[in-house]
Amino acid sequence: MANSESGSELAFASATELAQKIQKRELSCEELLNLYLGRVDQYNGELNALVVDIRDQALVDARAADKALADGKELGPLHGIPMTVKESYNVAGTPTTWGNPAWKDNVTKEDAESVKKLKDAGAIVFGKTNVPLMLADFQSYNDVYGTTNNPYDLERGPGGSSGGSAAALAAGLTGLETGSDIGGSIRNPAHFCGVFGHKPTHNLVWMRGHSPPGDMRTSPDISVIGPLARSASDLRTAMQIMAGPDDIMARGYQLKLPELNKPLGKLKVAVWKDDELCPVTAEVRSRVEQVADACRDAGAQVDESARPSFESDHTHRTYQHLLQATMSSRMPDADYESLKKYVDSLSSDDDSQMARTLRAQVSSFKDWGSSNEMRQHLRWSWHEFFKDYDVLITPIMPTPAFPHDHRDFGERTVVIDNEERPYFDQVFWAGLTGVAYLPSTVIPTGLNPEGLPIGVQLVGPEFGDMITIGVAEALEKIGFDFTPPARYC
What we know:
By secondary structure, the chain is of the alpha+beta class.
């Protein structure tokens, strides 16, 4: 290589640092791509993070990027940065299956809009990363590509549904990643794998090309796409590239996101470190407190009792109704009709969690509209809350990464300080912000005694994406940064 750094040091560098090295001619685009391809060949067998390999085209693109630089042409802030994308994104000439065997032959002809933007900014896409079936789990395994393992403990999952994305980043197999999130699918893998992840404000990033088969042009309710990275600065760069109105909205709208305009010590910080609806382990709670203490030590005003003007149960019920209705819209028609018949057979006085979930999956437009109205009230409650606070610190998941568990959903539980809880209770902290369209940035807080990462969620007002990322950048500078897994150093 053109510099004296070891391959592993380069592999774990941020995309921002790598782009600077390329611009300074300390490293060529082709050299950097070959570094990552070599690590994929060495380590991906045991991780199974990358599941679609498009290195031949990537090598052509890397050589073209080197030539452009030699000719004095800069392609953009990601010039020559090798990256992978979640399998659910369309990349021309590759399968987009969402882990569903029925779609294994769905080879797409065009890049997703966000992939086009990343490529136009100089990124070199060399592969796609694993997901759970239909992007609907906190683990990443399916019958098309198999199981992805966590780089910090191969017996555990990397999270889902952007689990392959986070695992590839953490193991130093790629320079940058982009995932999607409706129930924590960017944020819980970032937490489980010790990387940074950003769930954007809803509809801030055009989702066209991130969809099941067919040219779907809707942005599904709650769902977003956004970046994962080994540094907060990379999240900023990726969001500046990916964000913006679609081609119709662009006729009348321009994007101007507010920036964090004050140092860490001048912030007003709220803290929501636990909740009876989704208790977190003592060690997760302590990491939320650790981040809050760091803000306090810097001079920030920290309020651990501040809450928006609604109850936890209310926001969670609203989220679950809207989430389940959105997820069930992906069902095959026959399955949906069968589900409707089953729901009709439920007793009218059955108000169990399962019954509420099933009813939400086949809810009428009137019922959906009622929940949507509740959501709008939540949005305005948050709007008022963020008049008084710059950022809210919360957990994102109740535990660190847990061992692989591929039993039926109904048989799974999550253990929180020796207490078993329902598996899908874990979605609470993601849904708290997702239902109200709020941006959320996950930062790493280091490893626990078992060597597992723990992340913390930073929440801001709608369109405050650069505010939460700005707070993440400030916290990264004082030690809340990425810690590589020793196995891959």
